[in-house]
Specification:
alpha/beta; UDP-N-acetylmuramoyl-L-alanine:D-glutamate ligase; Protein-Tyrosine Phosphatase, Chain A; 2 domains; 8-stranded mixed β-sheet; 6-stranded mixed β-sheet; 17 strands; 38% helix; metal-binding
């Protein structure tokens, strides 16, 4: 099949085959193709914000995007991975890129990588370059780019950002980033640029992050020092205080709780200020009320879906559920990949889980339900069922849920994607 006749699904299948390694960190190959595509000649957008971190990237990107749009800016947002459709990875003014646009982007990447000496690209690298090419053709007021893994050597980092955001840093992807937090912090801080603002969205970042900023003489705004959030006077809301580049103290009051981590909400607001955007209180209220992030504390009736897959994310979920007690049982439908810290996740959720359903995830990094069940029981949890798949676990639970029960689905993007599809099929 020629490249000009490939469907989007065919392109994605081709990109998975053409490079034998799924993750191949390094910028030399990506930068060469980006150069051929003209992506390094001028900025993609009037302002560019890059977001890196272990947890909270997706929600931070979504809140930056939504607040900026509420202020009348044209916005492109690139995130990964997707849940149901590849199109989710690239949004223009809140709408997913259509198949035709993505195909055009892949065709542009393919032509550039095969020109002169062919260059091998991973699935993620090709997708990132296609997204950057499409963003460059639109030249929006703001581009918000989520780093896929790490920072310094991630394909997104081929682009110089005006503002670098670091959300949190915890142990994850140890096979690629190592298991030492200072080193991980330095890798993620690699998205910073000399003299450009850096927004630090956690009060518990490794010292290497600030050291990296100092080495680059990047002005730092840090959560808890230069910006913060507090419980607001309005029920369920919050207030925000930040700092402008000239040191002026800024404040926004009675913002609605977006149902997402408020550390990330505060970070998103400070990132926009660092990018030179003047915030209007009423428009920020509207944005925080409207922001939605699929798969992040997403409630579908009695079911709460969250892609959290490490202990830090699981701890946040446990805290949110503890603050919203239910009269019935709290079930946890858990599926995790084999290279994730299952013990840490189980321990973090143990305080809110009444009963567990362990599910097997397929693929080369699969973890069997039986192994998960053994770990849950070792931590004192009650395993009610071992499911051969996420869908099988959902079917079993659906027949047994009481009206006052709730279900937390978590452990993996694959887990949430499977249950989202299952819920959609049952709603049809």
């Amino acid at each position: 099949m020629s490249s000009t006749t490939r469907t989007l699904d065919a392109w994605l299948e081709y990109l998975e085959r053409v490079h034998p390694v799924g993750i191949d960190l390094g910028l030399d190959r990506v930068a060469e193709v980006a150069r051929r595509m003209g992506l390094l000649d001028e900025p993609l957008a009037s302002r560019i914000i890059t977001v890196a971190g272990t947890n909270g990237k997706g929600s931070t990107v979504a809140m930056i995007e939504t607040v900026a749009r509420a202020h009348g800016l044209s916005v492109a947002a690139y995130t990964s991975p997707h849940l149901l459709r590849y199109n989710e990875r690239l949004r223009f003014d809140g709408s997913e890129a259509d198949d035709a646009a993505l195909i055009a982007g892949f065709e542009a990447v393919e032509a550039a990588r095969l020109a002169d000496d062919p260059v091998s690209l991973t699935y993620f690298e090709a997708g990132t370059l296609a997204a950057l090419w499409l963003i460059a053709r639109r030249r929006p007021d703001l581009a918000v780019l989520e780093v896929g893994l790490g920072g310094r050597l991630d394909a997104v980092n081929v682009i110089d950002a005006d503002v670098a955001v670091i959300t949190t840093i915890a142990l994850d992807h140890a096979a690629f980033l190592g298991n030492e937090l200072e080193g991980i912090g330095r890798e993620k801080a690699g998205i910073m640029r000399a003299g450009c603002p850096a927004v630090l969205g956690s009060g518990e970042l490794p010292a290497s992050v600030r050291q990296s900023a100092q080495e680059r003489e990047a002005p730092v705004s840090a959560l808890g020092q230069d910006f913060e959030w507090r419980v607001g006077t309005a029920q369920g809301g919050f207030s925000w205080q930040g700092t402008a580049s000239d040191g002026t103290i800024l404040s926004l009051d009675d913002l609605p709780d977006p149902g997402l981590p408020l550390d990330n909400a505060a970070t998103a607001l400070q990132a926009l200020v660092a990018a030179g955007i003047a915030l209007d209180e009423q428009r920020c209220r509207e944005a925080m009320r409207d922001v939605r992030v699929p798969g992040r504390m997403q409630w579908l009736g009695q079911w709460c879906l969250d892609v959290g897959h490490n202990p830090h994310a699981a701890g946040y979920l446990a805290g949110r559920l503890a603050a919203q007690p239910c009269r019935g049982r709290t079930w946890v439908l858990l599926g995790m990949l084999g290279d994730k810290d299952a013990d840490g996740v189980i321990e973090a959720l143990g305080s809110v889980a009444d009963e567990w359903v362990a599910a097997t995830l397929g693929g080369e990094r699969a973890r069997e339900a039986s192994e998960l069940a053994s770990r849950i029981e070792a931590h004192g949890g009650k395993v009610a069922y071992q499911a051969a798949s996420p869908e099988a676990g959902a079917e079993w639970l659906a027949e047994r849920l009481a009206a006052d029960d709730r279900v937390l689905v978590c452990g993996s993007f694959f887990m949430v994607a499977a249950i989202l599809s299952w819920k959609q099929a049952h709603a049809a």
